[in-house]
Structures are given as structure tokens and as C-alpha cells.
Amino acid sequence: MTKTIGIYLFDDVEVLDFAGPFEVFSTAARLHARSVPGDQPLLAVTLIAARRAHVTARGGLVVMPEHDLRSHPALEVVIIPGGIIEAELERPELIEWLRAVSPSAEVVASVCTGAFILAQAGLLDGRPATTHWEDLEDFRTRFPDVRVDAGRRWTNEGKWFTSAGISAGIDMSLHLVERMACQALARRTARQMDYSWVVQETGGTGR
């Protein structure tokens, strides 16, 4: 069965926060299709925004999402990237959407300051989480019920994942390819991307 990965976009999203995972999953899907001709797609990545309108990422990159919060397909994986997230923290339809889609998702993940959005929705209470090193103290102060783990590239408890700053989302996404498919495909994906994958043990928090 094809697993659909939805990456949420918003104005001032950090480019590599969403583009890194997008590249990992789309590359993994392409490599799988190459090695198993005729098989159904392994992964499908879609970009989602609050409204189906152009999003301007940090640095001025303009991106057109494919779906809004009400029109997307069923999602096995939900990824919330970071960036300048203050407006998103005050967007009730986003918080409600996260609470609605999370129970049926196999993986709910954040990159960088995207952890603030998951925490705002109450999804990280009592769970380990991390974010960009520059924002760790603010994260601890705002969300005292979250178990902040500053020493890892990414954290995991069951289906809940968070990664540290920006490029750490690539390492987390490669682990998710390993989790959803196999280690061999994850390693081939990193090799295809010419990326030095920082492999991290799950630390007993669950796969």
C-alpha cells in the first residue's frame, strides 16, 4: 500500500525543513520504483497549507501547495516543519486539524521549531521532544509538560517524532524510510542524495 506523507507549509517556513524531508521521501520512492518495476508507489509526498494559495518560504521562495487542510488525501505520515511559527501557533484551524488527523496517522513528526506547533496542539505532553538548539529554552518555558531532550538529532516515542534544527530533519526522514520500508532503501536514498546520514539509535523509545 502506498503511504502518503503530508508536509504542512506556511509563510516563512524554513526551506530545508520541508524540502529536506520532501527530497528524502521522493528519492526513496523513485529508487523503489526503479528496483521494483510495475509495483505500486511506495511513498507519495504532498504539500498542504491552510489554504490552497502560494506560500512564501523564508528567503522568498514561493511554493504552491497541492491541498488545503480540508482537501488532502488520507495521510499515513504528517510532518510539521519549522521557521517563523508565531502566526501558526495562533491558527486554530491548524491546531484542530492536527488533533483530528493525528489519531489515524502512523507517524506524526516535526522538524526544528515545528515542535512548537505539535506542542501547542498538546500532542507532545509527557513525550520526549527536541527542536533547534537556539529555541530549546523557550520551548522548555512554553511547554513544561514536554520532556525536552537536547542531546539527540531526533526523538521518538511510538509514532511521535521531533527533530532538531533544519538539516536534522533529513536524518529523521531517512530513519522514517527505514521504519516504513527497510534500512537498505534508506541507505540507498542517502547515497543517491550524496548525504552523510547521521544514523542514530532509537534509544529504547520505540520504532
Task: Describe what you observe in this structure.
The chain is α/β, with parallel strands linked by helices and 207 residues long. It contains seven helices and eleven strands. The strands form three sheets. The chain has a seven-stranded mixed sheet with strand order 5-2-1-6-7-11-10, sandwiched between helices. A two-stranded antiparallel ribbon has the order 3-4. A two-stranded parallel ribbon has the order 8-9. Helix 1 packs parallel to helix 6, helix 1 (15-35) packs across helix 7 and helix 6 (168-180) packs antiparallel against helix 7 (183-192). The model is unreliable at 203-207 (pLDDT under 50).
Derived structural class: alpha/beta
User: What is the CATH homologous superfamily assignment?
Assistant: Class I glutamine amidotransferase (GATase) domain
Return the CATH architecture: 3-Layer(aba) Sandwich
Subunit organisation of the chains: single chain
What order do the SSEs take from the amino end to the carboxyl end, as H and E?
EHEEEEEHHEHEHEEEHH
Stretches where pLDDT is under 50 for at least 5 consecutive residues are: 203-207
